[in-house]
TrEMBL record:
Protein name: Uroporphyrinogen decarboxylase (URO-D) domain-containing protein
Record Gene3D superfamilies: 3.20.20.210
Lineage, top ranks: unclassified sequences, metagenomes, ecological metagenomes
Location of the Uroporphyrinogen decarboxylase (URO-D) domain: 19-350
Family annotation (InterPro entries): Methanogen_methyltrans (IPR052024), UROD/MetE-like_sf (IPR038071), Uroporphyrinogen_deCOase (IPR000257)
GO biological process, one term: porphyrin-containing compound biosynthetic process
GO molecular function per UniProt: uroporphyrinogen decarboxylase activity
Length: 359
């Protein structure tokens, strides 16, 4: 029986816009390259060898997980952008490739010096083979199942290019750091334009707002070095923003006071009461995740532990809508498949409408 992606679209859209006309709580897992390799049995180079390979591998993976969303994870403001900048600035040696996970950049190599930032060339993503493959794969996914969006970010890329020096720059040379942020923003706009040329108009952007965490920087600095760029992207595109932060002390409430968000995506704070209060304060902002942390019950617990955690989230946050189950962050290699598959089972058990919470 073919996978019912139309039902998935209805669940996601109905939840985001609070229509109430959905059959169950949606499921939004983050399955990165290593999970796609694990489920398909292919190496990363095999997967990324062509847009068709990547699209089919992604569809296979997210259907196996019984997800209601899908992504091409390399099309993300992290290693993929580091590679684009490395290729555009003759620093390909800073990229290391692996068999069963995404390539990684040596952080801080591309923009090691101030001169590197001053002379930094903005990549043309159409000329970067990996990006052409990813955007073309997104086009295939969209044509096949009508889903598949784009991930952007500023600080996640700054960290790749500048490394720990970026945190020193915040105090010692903020103007230089802002110059780098501006160049990253230009590159992100190029990614967005490339997506719209090949796939079509963007409706929602999954934004990796890594700066919005108390352990990273102050909220004022987060707005200065990332938040202002989110606002500019919103103004230029009219796209809705899903803000992701996988840190342990995120500024979700603070950022919702400053930026109009469609949804927040995180696993902390772990106290479910924080999320109950968040839902009361921001009733039109969808919560994706809440306190389902991949490094806790999923990694070290049993399927029953996972079920209990999903139940806790659905029980407290699904009534009234605008809640999506989502373990955060990416499902790691070491998590047992039994624990992973306990999530959709728990959603079916506790998240089917009308909601019932008896064991």
């Amino acid at each position: 029986m073919p996978y019912d992606w139309e039902a998935s679209r209805n669940r996601i859209m109905g939840t985001f816009f609070g229509t109430g006309k959905i059959d169950r709580v949606p499921y939004f897992p983050l399955a990165c390259e290593e999970m796609i390799c694990r489920i398909t049995g292919k190496t990363y180079r095999e997967i990324i060898a062509s847009p068709k390979n990547y699209a089919n591998a992604a569809i296979t993976t997210f259907e196996f997980l019984k997800a209601d969303t899908i992504s091409i994870p390399t099309a993300y403001a992290g290693p993929g952008e580091a590679l684009a900048f490395a290729e555009a600035n003759d620093k390909k040696e800073s990229i290391k490739w692996f068999d069963y996970k995404v390539f990684m950049a040596k952080q801080g190599v591309v923009c090691k010096t101030e001169e590197d930032i001053e002379k930094l060339e903005i990549p043309d993503h159409r000329k970067i083979s990996v990006w052409d493959t990813c955007i073309s794969a997104l086009d295939i996914v969209n044509k096949k199942i009508g889903m598949g969006g784009l991930s952007l970010g500023i600080w996640s890329v700054v960290q790749e290019l500048r490394g720990v020096q970026a945190y020193k720059d915040m105090r010692r040379n903020p103007d230089l750091l802002l110059k780098l942020c501006e160049k990253v923003y230009e590159s992100q706009m190029d990614v967005l334009n490339f997506y719209q040329e090949k796939v079509g108009q963007i409706g929602a952007i999954f934004f990796t707002g890594y700066s919005f965490n108390k352990h990273m920087m102050s909220f004022e600095d987060a707005m200065k070095f990332e938040g202002q760029f989110i606002k500019r992207i919103q103004k230029k595109t009219n796209a809705m923003i899903i803000l992701h932060n996988c840190g342990t002390s995120p500024y979700f409430k603070e950022v919702c006071e400053e930026i109009d968000l469609l949804a927040v995506n995180g696993s902390h704070p772990l106290d479910i009461e924080y999320w109950v209060n968040f839902k009361e304060k921001f009733p039109k902002v969808t919560i994706i995740g809440a306190n389902i942390d991949v490094s806790r019950e999923l990694l070290n617990g049993t399927p029953q532990d996972v079920e209990n955690k999903v139940k806790e989230n659905i029980t407290n946050l699904a009534p009234g809508g605008r809640y999506i189950v989502g373990p955060i962050c990416c499902l790691p290699w070491g998590v047992s498949l039994k624990n992973i598959m306990a999530i959709p089972k728990a959603i079916k058990k506790y998240g089917t409408h009308p909601l019932k919470f008896n064991d």
